Automatic annotation (TrEMBL):
Coiled coil: none annotated. The lineage of its organism: Bacteria, Bacillati, Actinomycetota, Actinomycetes, Kitasatosporales. It holds the Pfam family DUF1330. This is DUF1330 domain-containing protein. PANTHER family: BLR0684 PROTEIN, PTHR41521. InterPro entries: Dimeric_a/b-barrel, DUF1330.
Amino acid sequence: MSAYVIARLRKASLHPDIAEYIERIPGTFEPYGGRFLVHVTPHEVLEGTWDEDVVMIGFPGIEEARAWWDSPAYQEIAPLRSRHIDGDIILIKGVPEGYDATKTAAALRGALEG
């Protein structure tokens, strides 16, 4: 089951460390099957407010995503970003192939009734 690292990053002033981080990060996640799905692309707010930038990296599974995050290669470059950009970063599992939300709704209805 796929997994995703999602970052909501606050706007920051440009700094050479950020350019270096962006240059180096793809090499850190590629060995784990990771790839950018979203990388600070323009977004449209449909509800609420969202002034931050979004980065989303997809991995084949949660183990690969955790291994990337904990890897010496990533940990070496992480401060290049974290010293200059505040944000929130989460790791989340995707839904399995064939996921059916109506089954989740049925389980919720059962819990409400019982």
